[in-house]
Write a structure and sequence with these properties.
It is built from eleven helices and ten strands. With 328 residues, it is of the alpha+beta class. It has two domains: 6-91, Phosphorylase Kinase, domain 1; 102-327, Aminoglycoside 3'-phosphotransferase, Chain: A, domain 2 (Alpha-Beta Complex), CATH 3.90.1200. It has a five-stranded antiparallel beta sheet with strand order 1-2-3-5-4, with no helix packed on it. Strands 6-8-9 form a three-stranded antiparallel beta sheet, covered by helices on one side. A hairpin with a 5-residue loop joins β4 (78-79) and β5. It is globular. The N and C termini lie far apart (61 Å).
Amino acid sequence: MYDFGLSILEHYELTADTTYRGRGAIICETQEGLKIIREYHGSQKKLELLRQLQEQIEEAGIMKVDYIRVNKEGSVISCDRDGIPYVVRDWFVGRECDTKSKVDILNSVSLMARLHKVMHMPIEENYCKESLVDECQRHNREIKKIAKFVQKKQRKNSFESVLINVIDEFLYQGEMVLQDLERSDYYKLRQDAMIKGSICHGEYNQHNILYTEQGLSVVNGEKWSFDIQVTDLYQFMRKILEKHNWDVELGKMMIQEYCKEKPLTEAELINLQLRLAYPWKFWKLANFYANNHKAWISGKNAEKLEKLYKQKESWLFFVKNGFLDSFF
């Protein structure tokens, strides 16, 4: 019978007394405490570097980490009886960051800044994030291609009808951001980040921020990369501010909280502003449409697009007014 990865505990000389499902994983109570088992199909080298990074964070005393366990053979990856690769990590009970709580939000930002101060390693070219300029150029090309495709369609579904009415506005915004980005100090910021070996978590969101008995922790760092660290701040701010209709005061508080621990330079603040000004969520919805069966698109996607357009004014108001001169 398929054991959903439990057989790999044999590689760690562990026994599961109790198991239950987590977010795409199995959580086990063992003789050495709580462990989590999750499939892993990425680079072993990248996972080994993550383990090294976890050691740095733990040694700095910043937080308890979901430490990657090494099996009896000395490997960070183990295969079960069906040959499926898994990773076993330490785990802990906790609640996720409450996106409605300003205290939770600001504590999460403060922790991010403290983590960023120690998240540095010698550069590994294979794990450098794609250039932001290249990424925006690619997304703008994709949006243009989608626009041409939808324009040619005689009969449009509900999603396409909304899309064709708003796509030019979002594309214009994307092109303006790209122009400003190319005129900014982005390339110098990126070069400095590579020299320092600056690392981003890659998925710093409310689901990976846990309030535990041992304190606040950030988990699931498998998507880490070498990049300008303001990328993490942008990603977290966007997720939070979308839920708060781009509340200007909340956004300012998040930036100020980060700066208390790790002051941002003028160039970093401008880069953060430009990242927040790019229509990422629009691109994501349009790209999902382009890469899936277009004859049937969920009505929820049309609703998401309509909601996004309704937030457009609040979003652009924040981009213009959410960055005070006093930050610089």
